[in-house]
Structures are given as structure tokens and as C-alpha cells.
Specification:
Layout: H1 3-6, H2 15-19, H3 23-36, H4 43-56, E1 60-64, H5 67-77, E2 85-89, H6 95-102, E3 106-110, H7 121-130, E4 134-140, H8 150-160, E5 163-167, E6 175-176, E7 179-180, E8 187-191, E9 205-209, H9 212-221, E10 226-228, E11 231-232, H10 244-253, H11 257-275, E12 300-303, H12 307-316, H13 346-352, E13 355-358, H14 366-378
Parallel strand pairs: 2-3, 2-4, 4-5, 5-8
Antiparallel strand pairs: 1-9, 6-7, 8-9, 10-11, 12-13
Helix pairs in contact: 3-10, 4-10, 5-6, 5-9, 7-8, 11-14
């Protein structure tokens, strides 16, 4: 490994590098909003809701404040409330758990597949067999990988008469079995946090649904439960609205999403070529679609039994990494005493101790990829 590669600083994300090429078109969009004088639930939001719903292949988009609110509102629209169980994985950063608890619902955790880090048909069936008051299933397309069994899981939820809610916060644009993520369940929930594959210059989220009745319910719930101004038709409403500025900026960037996703696939392909012979390093499997269109690689997550030491080694070389996520939901201190948190999830716990995310943004250069690979290859040879 050369000294130049050793000391090259590589960031997980560089939003300045990501967005500066679009500065002029983003400025035009921002100026359009400023000149309109309309900043909440106006024409820019309506336009982006339509554009993004069309992109996902569904009939309705409902812009909201952030991705977690999208999950909360979907659960509320699905009728989840106190004592209702919601099946979910426990390896996705506590976001689904946060949303479930916000409705008064109760998480019912299921384990993950060790290769994909996502739930399977068998795991969901097992959870449904254990459930006494199931109301919904949240399926997380984690790290940008569409859940392979999404069609079968959708059928399980339908047969049980409960809602399938897709958490698509890390998988914008992923397509599996001919359909985009977000179009398989009754609800598809998205985050537009700045580092997402399609990110705002602030925060935002969206729920997409093919059911016009559910869409109307969601539009009420996102704004206090109003059917008209100051007329509350639904209890449990929130104040969660995608603002006009973010909607305009997101609509401007949406045409770039597929290209950015393909660049992420190309970055991962380069990692696979260069890291294939590195001992002690687990690489995730390829997607199940021939073109890997079911993977958008929001994160490229490796596994190592010496994860913590490897992270320290890479940090010393100036290579940023992260752990998504170090503590499974059922092990978080806030809920550890709850009876429903006493879940047996061996694969979830094993992966949390081994996973490590390495830089995988569309802006990463070949030299930076080489630096990351050299750093990984040198682990174990270091003094």
C-alpha cells in the first residue's frame, strides 16, 4: 500500500461535492418558490407528490415532514393503536420502533436473513403465528436492498387482513420483480433526509399508496385531522407537511436519481473486484435481479468478526466508516424492560456485532475507492 493511499481522507458522504454541480438549477427552483410567496402545501408540493408517486408506480403521494412521520402516519391510517401488534425487524435503527410506539402499538420483532439483513417470508409467517392482535407488518428495504420475498410477504399480510407498510427510506428507486419498492404494500414510506439516495436540502418524507381512500385519510392526518380548515374530522392528526421549498428542490433532483443509483452499483462492483481476495472480510451478496436493479446501495455494508478493530484501523488512515446499526432495537435501554422486547433474534444480534459501512456515495472517486480497499487489505498486516 502506498503512502499516498494510506493517508488519503475518504468521507462517508460529501454533500457539497454531491450538490454543487446542481447549484444553478436548485437556485432557480428556490427562486421560484420565493417569488411565489407560497411555502406550505402549495403547487410545488402537489407537483412533487405526483412526480414521485408516478416514479414509484402508484397513484398517490402524500408529502410529510420526515421519514419517521411517514411511518407514523401510515400506521395511524392503517388503524394501529394501543395494544395492536406490528411485525418489524429490530436491526434498522429504531426508526420503525419509534413509529410503532408513537401510535401506542406494540412491536413484534422477527429475525433477519444473515446474508441480506432483511426479513423473509418464513420470518414473517413465524411472527404472524405468534401474534395475538396483529395490525400491520413493516418491511424495511435495508441498505438499499429490496426485500427478496416482498411479493410473498404482501400475500401473507393480505391473507391476514392487515396492512403491509414498506419502509423505503434507504431504497429510493429499487425495483424488484418488475415493480418499484413502495408499490407492493398498502403504504410505501420514504425519507428525504439529505444523505438519502434522493435527499432534500433539509428534511422531508412521503407516503405513497395506490388506495385513494387511504390517501385522503393520510392527507387529513398529516394536518391535524382536518377535512377543511379548522374542521377536525379524524382524531390522531399531526402537523407534518413537506414544505414548498424542499418539494421544489426534490422535484428538480428526481431526474438524477436513477443515474446516482447506477453509479452506486458501479462503485460496489469496483469494491467487489478489488476486495474479493481479502481474508476475513464478508461482502454482501449480489442482488437477485440480473441488473441488480433491486439494490440501490444506499449503504455498502461489510462484516468482520474484528469489526471494532477494523474501524479503528481505517479511521487511523483517514477513512470514514459507520455502523448501521450497533444496537438492535430490542436491546435499547429505553425499552429493555418491556415484555415484548424479550425477543430471540440471534442473527440480528450477530450482525450488529460485525457490520461496518464503508464509503459508497456516487461522488467517490476511483482513487478514493483504491484507498478504502488498500486500507481494508492492510488490516491484519498492520503492526
Amino acid at each position: 500500500m502506498t503512502s499516498g493511499a494510506t493517508h488519503r481522507s475518504v468521507a462517508m458522504n460529501d454533500l457539497r461535492r454531491h450538490l454543487v454541480p446542481y447549484r444553478d438549477v436548485l437556485a432557480e427552483a428556490a427562486d421560484r418558490v420565493l417569488r411565489s410567496g407560497w411555502f406550505i402545501l402549495g403547487p410545488e408540493t402537489e407537483r412533487f407528490e405526483t412526480l414521485f408517486a408516478d416514479y414509484c408506480g402508484v397513484g398517490n403521494g402524500i408529502g410529510v415532514g420526515n421519514g419517521t412521520d411517514a411511518l407514523v402516519l401510515a400506521l395511524k391510517a392503517a388503524g394501529v393503536g394501543p395494544g395492536i401488534q406490528v411485525l418489524a425487524a429490530a436491526n434498522a435503527g429504531f426508526y420503525a420502533t419509534t413509529a410503532i410506539l408513537a401510535t401506542g402499538g406494540e412491536p413484534l420483532y422477527v429475525d433477519i436473513d444473515p446474508d441480506t439483513h432483511t426479513v423473509t417470508e418464513d420470518a414473517v409467517q413465524d411472527g404472524l403465528n405468534r401474534a395475538t392482535r396483529p395490525g400491520a407488518v413493516i418491511v424495511t428495504h435495508l441498505f438499499g436492498r429490496a426485500v427478496a420475498d416482498i411479493k410473498e410477504i404482501s400475500a401473507l399480510a393480505e391473507a391476514r387482513g392487515i396492512s403491509l407498510i414498506e419502509d423505503c427510506a434507504q431504497a429510493h428507486g429499487a425495483r424488484i420483480k418488475g415493480r418499484r419498492v413502495g408499490s407492493w404494500g398498502r403504504f410505501g414510506c420514504f425519507s428525504f433526509y439529505p444523505t438519502k439516495n434522493l435527499g432534500a436540502l433539509g428534511d422531508g418524507g412521503m407516503v405513497v399508496t395506490g388506495d385513494a381512500g387511504l390517501a385522503a385519510r393520510l392527507r387529513k392526518l398529516r394536518q391535524y385531522g382536518w377535512s377543511a380548515k379548522y374542521r377536525v374530522a379524524l382524531a390522531g392528526g399531526m402537523n407534518s407537511r413537506l414544505d414548498e421549498m424542499q418539494a421544489a428542490l426534490l422535484g428538480t433532483l428526481l431526474p438524477e436519481l436513477d443515474g446516482w443509483n447506477q453509479r452506486r452499483r458501479d462503485v460496489v462492483a469496483a469494491y467487489r473486484r478489488k476486495l474479493g481476495g481479502v481474508d476475513g472480510l464478508w461482502l454482501p451478496p449480489l442482488g437477485i435481479e440480473a441488473s441488480e436493479e433491486d439494490t440501490t446501495y444506499h449503504l455498502f455494508v461489510l462484516r468482520s468478526p474484528q469489526r471494532d478493530a477494523l474501524q479503528v484501523h481505517l479511521s487511523a488512515l483517514g477513512i470514514s466508516t459507520d455502523i448501521h446499526y450497533p444496537t438492535p432495537d430490542h436491546k435499547q435501554a429505553a425499552i429493555a424492560a418491556e415484555p415484548w422486547a424479550k425477543a430471540a433474534l440471534p442473527e440480528t444480534e450477530r450482525s450488529a456485532a460485525e457490520i461496518l459501512s464503508i464509503p459508497c456515495s456516487p461522488e467517490i472517486t476511483e482513487a478514493e475507492i483504491d484507498a478504502v480497499c488498500a486500507g481494508l487489505a492492510s488490516f491484519g498486516r498492520a503492526d
